[in-house]
Amino acid sequence: MGTVVTYAANEGLNEHEIAARVAVARRLAALKGFEFGGGYQPSLQRNKPLYFVPSETLSGNEAARLGIRGANDLFGGVVPHPFVASKTIAHPLTGRDAQRPVGWSEAFPQRVHAVVLPGFTAFARADALKGGERLLEDGPVRVKHGRGIGGKGQAVATDRGALARALDAFDRVELASCGVVLEPSLEEQATYSVGQVSVDGLCASYCGTQRSTTDNDGRPAYGGSDLLIVRGGFAALLALQLDTAMRLAVHRALTFDQASAEFPGLFASRRNYDVLHGRDARGRWHCGVLEQSWRIGGASGPEVAALEAFRADSRLRAVRARSTELYGEQATPPRGAIVHFHGVDPVAGPLVKYTMVEPKEVDALATAH
Fold first, then answer.
1. What are the Cα distances from residue 286, in Å, to 120, 183, 217, 222, 242?
2. What angle, rounded to 10 degrees, do the helices at 15-32 and 300-312 form?
3. Is 48 left (phi over 0), alpha (psi -120 to 50) or beta?
4. 284-313 tens-digit pLDDT
5. pTM
6. pLDDT digits over 325-346, tens only?
């Protein structure tokens, strides 16, 4: 029997985020028939297998130090360079002389050009200003920290002055390492989640939509995801009758996923892609991958619950799973929910995080012709 452990090189997480990660790790341990060992300690004996649940995508060097050699060793992913785990890989640099990190791929943004939003990536203020000014010709520009999560670390600039001020908020050293992404600011219509997870040879793929809510301070926050999760790979997902917008989102994500082969040494057992469908200032519609997540995330509760359902019933083809995050003292999980956190976080305040799963009969799912 092996051991499942959580791992965080730089914790920086709120109590509810840690609790949710531990809850998913415990369920992964049960799914694998392993014991749960809590947080990783270097003193752990390596005479039996360790399975890691990291809070972040790991670099190749860090993974090697931990003894992680492939996708079967973790719930998440490993990249050859830290920037590969960020939003920055989706867009080209502003020119041949633009600053770039070691390992930068010119080929990747070329391969995904048609499936992401228009935009630029920069690792220096002058380069970012140059790219932002080009985008301003078509309307407001969204300035995004390369490693921002959940809509944090973003600003919208409507003119050159606002763009300069937004970039001034970046520390130059941090900008050089994490980068900044510049994209048109869209009127958001829908954010889709598309992904795939694999544990011990059991694979599930999914698509669905994200919901937003407000936190205890009245600010916009992630409210959960409504997912259709199917046994098997992306081909099994595309064999279903999906509406036009959802099918387009899946194809966008699949192209992005396949292009990740441009980064030698990248592997992942958990692949999640956010796809935005929205309209720019000129009224033009865009559908593009916003970012990738090769680590545990907001949809991981439903992902693992689906794997549990598929393991329990070999005839089950698909489930609908809904993750929910509710804020406030009155927030309570419904009966039958898989609860990941229910309490008062010292920073975020009172909230509850849970998953609901509904098995779908095979004959309830039509296939595309």
1. 16, 11, 31, 22, 19
2. 20
3. beta
4. 999 999 999 999 998 999 999 999 999 999
5. 0.92
6. 999 999 999 999 999 999 999 9
